[in-house]
Amino acid sequence: MTADPTTQTLAQLGDATPEKVAARFAEVRARFDEQAAEHSAKKDAEEWKSFVVAWTGRKSGALTNIGDNWLKPAPKELKPTVGQELNKLKAHVEATLEEKRKEIEAASEEAAAARDQVDLSLPGVERAIGTRHIIRQTFDELLRIFLSIGFSVVEGPEIETPYYNFEALNIPEHHPARDNMDTFYIEGPPDGRAGSSAAADKRATAGKYLLRTHTSPMQIRTMEKQAPPVRIVVPGKVYRRDNPDSTHGYMFHQIEGLAVDTDITFCDFKGTVEYFVREFLGPKAKTRLRPSYFPFTEPSAEVDATCHVCGGTGCRVCKFSGWIELFGAGMVNPAVYGFVKYDPEKLSGFAFGMGVDRLAMMKYGITELPLLFQNDVRFLRQFP
């Protein structure tokens, strides 16, 4: 007998009775079960396909061979037995193959899922996360302080007219104060209609515009449009024709404030300044006011605070004075009210202006102004 009995006829196998035929089919079935278990255990999809073809192939599969070699040439008396046994074998083979197919497919899907699964125990890929720039952080902190005591925030154009930048702030043409505020001028149309505001266009000087030297022009614009009381802070970029060095630049940031109402006194001004300094530099910080001069305030003062490094005892940062200059301020000059049609007999107020870049450098110990604008990630990462 050959290794594969399905390639021989029943007569060649010597199976001439129904009992022997049934035994022969049982032998084939056992052989199929053994091979099926062996191939399914390997979980190899290609080998499994070859096994299925070997048993169910139309040309040379084992079931096809049984039909051709056992059923067709079988004697008349054995045909019913061969047919019944062949049908049982087919049903068993098909059911077993379907069951094993599902097991192999499930195993393949599990293997694929295992390959694609993210290993949560591995370190993650670090992604760079952006943060607020140190200037933006300082802006936000300053605005938070003033918003907490009733000020509101207004913003305005960086391209201004000489009227709003100088004249309406009591700095007429040829005034010596303009020397410290030399800026960049822009030539506009001769009729002065380059701006978006009709009032600004009308007050442009022969089409001449400039990059604002402070954010104070928005104080004038706000008072033109709004009746008292006024309590505003104006953040933004400003420009001056300075040669860049460790503490100067042609562009920097300011926050200027204005409060106008009836019965505002110098005491209100001093209390506001002291509150701001304590909130920004800490509760132990002290302030002092030094007489100064600004065309748009009278009286004017420079606001100093105890040195944030030595606490007022004296060090190289404060030049052993114990004090650091913060910003300029003062009571609004009554002459300014005349430009906005406010009554100086009934109203009073105070104004202040501070450099955001300088405050950031002072608070965080930065010694070089250009570091703030060089976009060096190594520097910026120190202020998350």
Structure summarized in a few sentences:
This protein is of the alpha+beta class and 384 residues long. Helix 2 packs antiparallel against helix 3 and helix 2 runs parallel beside helix 5.
Describe the structure.
The chain is α+β, with helices and mostly antiparallel strands. It folds into two domains: 5-116, no CATH class; 134-156 and 213-380, Bira Bifunctional Protein, Domain 2 (BirA Bifunctional Protein, domain 2, 2-Layer Sandwich), CATH 3.30.930. The protein has helices at 10-13, 18-42, 45-56, 62-71, 79-116, 134-147, 162-165, 198-203, 217-225, 266-281, 334-340, 356-364, 377-380, and strands at 152-153, 159-160, 185-187, 208-211, 230-239, 251-261, 287-294, 297-306, 323-332, 348-355. A seven-stranded mixed sheet has the order 1-5-6-10-9-8-7, sandwiched between helices. Strand 7 and strand 8 form a beta hairpin. It is rod-shaped, with a radius of gyration of 46 Å. The two termini are 85 Å apart. Residues 192-202 have low confidence and may be disordered.
